[in-house]
Design goal:
elongated; binds fe (ii) ion; two-stranded antiparallel ribbon; alpha+beta; three-stranded antiparallel beta sheet; 2 domains; about 25% strand
């Protein structure tokens, strides 16, 4: 597992995970305290929704840390995907399959960025 290339987004996901866990517990406490059955059910439903967010955010972070996950960017010229493969080295070139865009990967403060190469 590596944070390489995804440092900023993984930090944001960690913050979001903490928020979602807190919201799950808070809505659960509200549900436990609510006397009105409709309000109780509403807070239970909100808590289940937040728990789903916890699972989704955790899964997203696991995918980004998985060494088998491809490094993929959207082409800044046309929006198509440019795939740099698994565990690319800095400077790995990538060609957009849909337009003339040519790029190379560069690491800045732990995050992948695209350098556009001359056509
Ligand atoms: Fe493109």
């Amino acid at each position: 597992m590596s944070e390489r290339g995804n440092t900023t987004v993984l930090a944001a996901l960690a913050d979001d995970l903490e928020f979602e866990r807190g919201a799950t517990k808070l809505y659960g406490r509200f549900a436990n305290r609510a006397e009105d059955p409709l309000i109780k059910e509403l807070f239970k439903e909100l808590s289940r929704g937040e728990a789903g967010h916890v699972r989704g955010v955790r899964r997203m972070a696991e995918t980004l840390r998985d060494p088998q996950t491809h490094v993929v960017f959207f082409c800044p010229l046309c929006g198509w995907q440019v795939d740099f493969g698994v565990d690319p080295a800095e400077g790995t070139p990538g060609k957009c399959p849909m337009c003339p865009g040519k790029y190379a990967l560069r690491l800045i403060d732990g995050d992948w960025v695209l350098d556009r190469l001359a056509p």
